[in-house]
Amino acid sequence: MNDQEPPDPEWVWEYGAEPDWVVGDLPPEGRAAAEEVARELVVLASLGQDPGDGASVTNPQGLRVIAMGPLMVWYQVIDYRKRVYIQRVTWLG
Q: CA–CA separation, 78 vs 14, rounded Å?
């Protein structure tokens, strides 16, 4: 992944709960990887794109999951707020 700016600067990501609850138990490399994924999800969301197969697991609240290597990130995209909310992160590294 690369570190791109979203085409629409109003789009941002944030944790859906307190960061200590979402990523507090992760090692520094796990947290950095989760934040990199969050930045990339913002770029995709600002372009109106869905990350594809990684977002195939959904529920009625719009919770999605993307898995990349030892990292799993559960997130929501809320278009009208221009936000990507990172709800849960699992690091298996």
A: 11
* Nearest C-alpha neighbor of 59 from the set 37, 83, 43, 75: 75
Residue 51: in which H helix or E strand, if any?
Answer: none
Stated pTM of the model: 0.82
- 78 to each of 16, 30, 64, 83, how far by Cα in Å? 11, 24, 12, 5
To the nearest 10°, the Cα dihedral for 61, 29, 38, 22?
30
> What pLDDT digit, counting tens, does each position of 13-55 carry?
999 999 999 999 999 999 999 999 999 999 998 888 876 444 5
**For residue 55, which amino acid is it?**
A
- Residues with Cβ within 8 Å of residue 53, at least 6 apart in sequence: none
Q: Using CA atoms, how far apart are residues 56 and 51, in angstroms rounded to an integer?
A: 9
User: Each residue of 69-87: pLDDT tens digit?
Assistant: 999 999 988 888 999 999 9
